Amino acid sequence: MKLLSDILYKVQLQAIDGNTDLQISDVQIDSRKVQKGSLFIAVKGVAVDGHQFIQKAISQGAVAIVYEELPMEKNPGVTFVQTKKSVEAAGVIAHNFYGQPSQHIKLVGVTGTNGKTTIATLLYKLFTALGYKCGLVSTVENQIAGKVIQATHTTPDAISLNVLLKQMVDEGCSHAFMEVSSHAVHQRRIAGLEFAGGIFSNITHDHLDYHGTFDEYIKSKKGFFDALPASAFAITNIDDKRGAVMLQNTAAKKYTYSLRSVADFKGKILENSLAGLQMMVNDQEVHFRMIGEFNAYNLLAVYGTAVCLGEDKYNVLQTLSNSTGAEGRFDYIISPKEKIIGIVDYAHTPDALLNVLATIKKLKSGEEQVITVVGCGGDRDKTKRPVMGEVACAHSNKVIFTSDNPRSEDPLQILAEMEAGLNTAARRKFVSIADRKQAIKTAVSMAEPEDILLIAGKGHEKYQEINGVKHHFDDKEVLKEMFELLGK
Ligand SMILES: CC(=O)N[C@H]1[C@@H](OP(=O)(O)OP(=O)(O)OC[C@H]2O[C@@H](n3ccc(=O)[nH]c3=O)[C@H](O)[C@@H]2O)O[C@H](CO)[C@@H](O)[C@@H]1O[C@H](C)C(=O)N[C@@H](C)C(=O)N[C@H](CCC(=O)O)C(=O)O
Ligand SMILES: Nc1ncnc2c1ncn2[C@@H]1O[C@H](COP(=O)(O)OP(=O)(O)OP(=O)(O)O)[C@@H](O)[C@H]1O
Ligand SMILES: N[C@H](CCC[C@H](N)C(=O)O)C(=O)O
Ligand SMILES: [Mg+2]
């Protein structure tokens, strides 16, 4: 229970009608979760306008309503609070209701098109190994000092997020590492939170269905850094074309990491193989178990962040050296007989796919073939489909286009869009098989000893969403099954 007047602290108010000396039992942005004593915040969404559920919320027991424009008469006995932007208010209110958890924990946010899960997970593992109790908010899972909580989003809605952060504080966590998706910045899921630091990994093509243009997508990510306080640090990949722009208007202390230019945290790759990365990090030579140039960037981001958080450089490098990344990111198994390397990776953007295939190319020792199985998600950015199709064909010997999560779309239509941009040479390399299991089976049957198979797009996911139903599906499990079935 919290007093309404207390949880409205720092909310930009337009008008209040009713009693604010009122006990609130919980705060909700979804009318379906409203109970007796709730505060309901009406949010204009992408699909529907939450204001149309105000009456329903009141009939379920809401005692106070936060809104922008009222589509109805006010009910007597209910307090109505008008604000300019209810999504912003939702973040601030949730933060107040749950005891301002970000004030009691060192909260570090990671944003960028690719690498967020990897960086946040590495930080969580590193700080846990260094002896701290930590929290993690990520695409793969959320964690509170070792306890796993299933994730539904990369960055949950403001209320779920503050519930998680409060649980971390209650558990005695000193640090929380979280992914900040562009949707979360745009929808203000992070409003009200006070970050101790922010990390930028990179920005390339994704989510243009949602943001409309690349400039809007950049603006959304930059918004995260613009809002950081002067007490925070902001660390950016200065090799990315937008790395500097991201920090242009931040009040936070600025730091850079790089493999190519002068930077606060400078790395140089000495060796890059399936055994890992041999690198110089500033003046230290270190071996990491993680593979590929893109992970060299992720490791530098983690190293820089740990130093910004006051950790000892040598301790950090020693601990990081042994670390592995997140599940389903360049996760590989070698077939028992024919030594085929099967890699499961979450590359679901053109840039991620290109990076993974470039890494594979560098790992090749001879004439082994690269066979890629890839699809594109339904109800997501359609413009990335032909580009991903093209990238897969340009950097593989053979390609099988298949379904990712078709969601509400027709799988054959998605495949047709992936095929649309292919030139004649590329057309000779690919075949489309909509059934993902059959596609993986075909790839395994095509593979010769020591070939490299890349199964891209779904990484850690344990399901395939078709027509609103999530069926169990695990790329790694299917790959193992096919190696066995086909005697590879
Ligand atoms: C496109 C998008 O981001 N949608 C998110 C958004 O939903 P929305 O705006 O469509 O909400 P809506 O359905 O229009 O409803 C508007 C409001 O009315 C409320 N409502 C609705 C129905 C009702 O009966 N009663 C009611 O009160 C809703 O709770 C909401 O507050 O707000 C919801 C609540 O926060 C999110 O769950 C939902 O995520 C959907 C499920 C989703 O798939 N999002 C993906 C695209 C996403 O967020 N991805 C990012 C990035 C992924 C990455 O890492 O690349 C992520 O952070 O996960
Ligand atoms: N720093 C990086 N630069 C480019 N590509 C990367 C980088 N790190 C990882 N990748 C590639 O992107 C994929 C996704 O990585 P990761 O899950 O860490 O990113 P993410 O930003 O969390 O993605 P999402 O937005 O879907 O949550 C990996 O499987 C890998 O193929
Ligand atoms: N967080 C990303 C994940 C995409 C993963 C891919 N497997 C897909 O379903 O498109 C999204 O929701 O757009
Ligand atoms: Mg992620």
Question: Can you put this structure into words, describing what you see?
Answer:
The chain has 488 residues and is an alpha/beta fold. It has an eleven-stranded mixed beta sheet, sandwiched between helices. The protein has a six-stranded mixed beta sheet with strand order 19-20-24-21-22-23, with helices on both faces. It has a five-stranded mixed beta sheet with strand order 2-7-6-5-4. β9 (134-137) and β10 form a beta hairpin. The chain is globular, with a radius of gyration of 24 Å. The mean pLDDT is 96. 2,6-diaminopimelic acid is lined by residues 139, 154, 348, 377, 380, 404-405, 457-458, 461. 2,6-diaminopimelic acid (API) is lined by residues 139, 154, 348, 377, 380, 404-405, 457-458, 461.
Which strand order spans the largest sheet, edge to edge or round the barrel? 11-10-9-12-8-13-14-15-16-17-18
Gyration radius (Cα, Å) is 24 Å
Helix content: 25-40%
Distinct ligands: ligand UAG, adenosine-5'-triphosphate, 2,6-diaminopimelic acid, magnesium ion
Structural class: alpha/beta
Please identify the oligomeric state.
Answer: single chain
Instruction: Tell me the total number of β-strands.
Output: 26
Mean pLDDT: 96
How much of the sequence lies in strands comes to: 15-25%
User: What's the overall geometry?
Assistant: globular
Uncertain segments of ≥5 residues (pLDDT<50)? Answer: none
How many DSSP helices? 17
Cα(first) to Cα(last) distance is 61 Å
Report the sheet with the most strands, covering strand number, pairing sense and barrel closure.
11 strands, mixed
